Amino acid sequence: MANDAFKTGESYTLAELFSKDHQIIIPDLQRDYCWGDPCHTEEKKELVSGFVRKLLELFQKNKEKGELNLGLIYGYESPTNHIQLCDGQQRITTLFLLIGMLNRYSTKNAFQGNLISTYELEQDDKEPYLRYSIRESSLYFMSDLVCKIFITNGENISNKTSVSELIRKSEWYFNEYNLDPSIQSMLNAIDSIQTIIQEETIDF
Question: Is the whole model's pTM more than 0.70, yes or no?
């Protein structure tokens, strides 16, 4: 990796990964996002709930230290500041969706700067820090998800409002998205994350 960007073997925070002019790219050679699918355990449960609940539990235990190790990710840099992810896709995607949902609930856009740069949002192509390039539908969906759902514009969200249903009813949600496995898994993941946020007391 280039010296002016990420360095092999170094530790980085999520805030550092999703910031500045960096982009984490899920290339088209990767498999679909699947942690939201209810088919990964004997009980036919999705993996998002367990991952996020464990994350919150570890965060509470390590609150005084102010750090939490989220494991290794592997990728290569091409071009500069663009990390083509080879391993860690499921974790990174779930964490990005979690940040997005936390931002949605904050009503203050507390995490907007970790979803998309101001330049991308206001002056360029509205590409978020996580680019889902498996197929065009996933790529466009992620951009609209960040810009039209995760960024709140100050509105409150009711506990009775299903964010996934809000997405499905949006004018930017195309019928072809129903055929994209990654998108459908993301919508399931958003449902799971919303349930956990509603159950937990989180101070924004």
Answer: yes
